[in-house]
Design brief:
- Helices cover 37% and strands 16% of the residues.
- It is of the alpha+beta class.
- The strands form four sheets. The protein has a three-stranded antiparallel beta sheet with strand order 2-1-3, with no helix packed on it. A three-stranded antiparallel beta sheet has the order 8-9-10, sandwiched between helices. The chain has a two-stranded antiparallel ribbon with strand order 4-7.
- A hairpin with a 5-residue loop joins strand 5 (121-123) and strand 6.
- Helix 6 (143-154) packs antiparallel against helix 11 (297-319).
- The two termini are 37 Å apart.
């Protein structure tokens, strides 16, 4: 890896103008923007990739507003099957932790980022607290920005790619992702907890099939069914734009697996004496989102368009024009 002095020398040799802006560590691109808002240029993002056998590594810095064509990049670099390196390798090589759950919990906490933790305190048999988690907090985005992001991501779990991942009686917000046949992930959060699941092969020797909307969402739903009953069940304070526009949530078919997961929720809620963060609904419905019997498809299509416009009008201020 080139040293900072070598990078400066290379930029000078290539006659590339640059300016060094020193600033405190930032935890988001939005926070970084505050330090460079008076400078011309585009906001960038960094991708850490590896070849198929993880013997060569690449740091790609690119325009944050654009997407990379992994196949085309592989051709340019003359390597086989690029993939994102694992969290362990990232920490080993650069001292960095990808912290996807850490990043999303800023939205769950109204723009405040806490140190990632699951155990808040430890009590002995007498109920005395013997250890409490020491959690650092820092505001990284405004509450208004966090709320708008949450509004957008609520739709992921009702009418988007995570529509099969939400457990019975719980409303989640979040995001999913699929990197061709190498990586699939699902992130879901409530105001109480953030959960992240990654499925894939860091060495690139094997291939995944399908997308995060499939089996990965099923795995996530089962994990969340065990975890969420032991949270406070705090409801969201913002509304789902789809619901605001009168667009019904997609309902998966009933399956034995989903029924088993619903039973897990019932059992764990009875144990924890909790009820979830939304009114009980038919999460294992026998109907399908593709069933059009009795539905006014023209009206639904208009509602979806209105919902999308409404959501965009509410969040476009986050990204500019």
């Amino acid at each position: 890896m080139r040293t900072f002095a070598e990078v400066e020398k290379l930029l000078t040799e290539l006659s590339i103008p640059y300016k060094i802006v020193e600033h405190p560590a930032s935890h988001s691109t939005e926070e970084s923007d505050n330090y460079i808002k008076d400078y011309e240029g585009c906001r960038s993002k960094t991708l850490i990739l590896a070849n198929k056998k993880s013997t060569q590594f690449y740091m790609i810095i690119m325009d944050d507003a654009k997407q990379v064509d992994m196949n085309r990049l592989s051709e340019i670099l003359e390597v086989k099957r690029l993939h994102f390196i694992s969290e362990d390798r990232l920490e080993e090589m650069l001292g960095l932790n990808s912290g996807i759950a850490q990043a999303y919990q800023a939205f769950a906490n109204g723009g405040v980022m806490n140190d990632a933790h699951l155990i808040t305190k430890i009590e002995n048999a007498a109920g005395q607290v013997v250890k409490t988690a020491k959690v650092n907090k820092k505001r990284v985005v405004s509450k208004d920005t966090a709320d708008k992001m949450t509004q957008m991501m609520l739709g992921t779990y009702t009418n988007g790619s995570a529509w099969k991942a939400s457990p019975k009686s719980y409303t989640l917000a979040g995001k999913t992702g699929t990197n061709e046949d190498q990586d699939q992930w699902v992130v879901g959060y409530t105001p109480d907890v953030v959960m992240a699941l990654w499925v894939g092969y860091s060495d690139g020797k094997y291939k995944l099939t399908g997308s995060s909307e499939g089996q990965t969402s099923v795995i996530f739903r089962q994990e969340a069914s065990y975890m969420l009953p032991y949270t406070k069940g705090t409801p969201f304070t913002v509304e789902n734009p789809y619901a605001q526009a009168g667009v019904a949530a997609q309902q998966p078919y009933w399956t034995q697996q989903r029924q088993y997961q619903d039973d897990i929720v019932d059992q764990e809620q009875a144990e924890a004496n909790t009820t979830g963060n939304t009114p009980e609904s038919s999460s294992s419905s026998t109907s399908s989102s593709s069933d059009s019997n009795g539905l006014d498809l023209g009206k639904i299509g208009k509602n979806i368009g209105d919902a999308a416009k409404n959501a965009w009008d509410k969040v476009k201020g986050v990204f500019g024009n």
